[in-house]
Amino acid sequence: MIVVKVGGSLGIDYDAVCADLAGRYRAGEKLILVHGGSGETNRVAEALGHPPKFVTSPSGYTSRFTDRETLEIFEMVYCGKMNKGIVERLQRLGVNAVGLSGLDGRIFEGKHKDSVRAVENGKVKVLRGDHTGTVEKVNTALIELLLNAGYLPVLTPPASSYEGVAINVDGDRAAAALAVALKADALLLLSNVPGLLRDYPDESSLIREIPANDVESYLEFAQDRMKKKVLGAAEAVEGGVRRVIFGDARAGKPISDALNGAGTVVS
Questions:
Q1: What does each of the 267 residues of the chain score in pLDDT, given as a tens digit?
Q2: For residue 181, which phi and psi values (nearest 5 degrees)?
Q3: In the chain, N or C: fewer CB atoms in 10 Å?
Q4: How far apart are CA 135 and CA 132, in angstroms?
Q5: How many Å apart are CA 185 and CA 187, to the nearest integer?
Q6: Annotated binding site
C-alpha cells in the first residue's frame, strides 16, 4: 500500500504523475492519490476578486486564511477542476479512479478551528471566521471498500468537522494521517522541488536521507510550505509508516523515481 500526495504548486507535471501511477496500478499495486491545488486556487481567487490571504503562525507555519468565501473557491478548484482533471487523466489511462473530497463520507475528519493566531507587523493577532482544522480521524472502511473493489481513490481536502462543516486541512498532513491509518508501506510527498534542500533554492543542496528519529531537527531547512511536509513526514514515521519520501513531480516517473531513492528519504 502506497499513499502518494502530489502538491498543487506551479511546475508539477500531472500527466507524468498519472502515467506512472497507472503503470503501477496495472501491475497490481494498491495506491491512493491525495492532491492539492494551491496554485490554481490562488489564480481563480484573484480572478473572482477575492485574493488569497496567507497567515504565518507564531511558530512560523504559513497557511491560507479560509473564510467562508475562500472555502467555496477552494472547494470549486480542489473538488472540481483539480480532482476531476486528475480522475479524467487516470480514466483515459485505463484506471478506474474515484475522486472524493475528505468531506465525502467523512473520509477526513477533525476539529473545526474557528480562529487562528497570526503574526502581523511583529504583533500576534487573533483572526476569527476561519474554516480550518487538522485531520484526526480517517474513514478507512470507505477507502478499503474502494480499494478492495479495484478502484483507485483520488482524494483531496476539505475535510469534515465533527459537526459536519467543511474545513480546509493541510493536504500533506492529511496524507500522513491516511498513511498511518491504513498502515501504508510508504508515503510519497511530491512537489515542484527535488526534495528537502539544505540551501533553498539550490537544487544541488538536496538532503538525501533523514533518520526517522530525527525528522523535526530538519525543520530549519524547510521553507514556507515545505515545513508542513516535514511535519507530515514526522507524524507519519511516528505513526508507523516505514518510509516517507519527498520527491520531484516535475517530470520523468515521479512515483517510481521516488521509490527508487531519488529525493529525500525518511526512514
A1: 999 999 999 899 999 999 999 999 999 999 999 999 999 999 999 999 999 999 999 988 889 999 999 999 999 999 999 999 999 999 999 999 999 999 999 999 999 999 999 999 999 999 999 999 999 999 999 999 999 999 999 999 999 999 999 999 999 999 999 999 999 999 999 999 999 999 999 999 999 999 999 998 999 999 888 999 999 999 999 999 999 999 999 989 999 999 999 999 999
A2: -65, -35
A3: C
A4: 10
A5: 7
A6: 64, 168
Number of Cβ within 10 Å of residue 203's Cβ equals: 12
* CB neighbour class for 168 (10 Å; exposed up to 12, middle 13-18, buried from 19): buried
Q: Which three cell numbers stand for residue 166?
A: 467543511
User: Residues marked as binding for substrate?
Assistant: 64, 168
For the chain, how long is the longest CA-to-CA vector? 54
Q: Which of 92, 96, 263, 260 is nearest to 194 (CA)?
A: 263
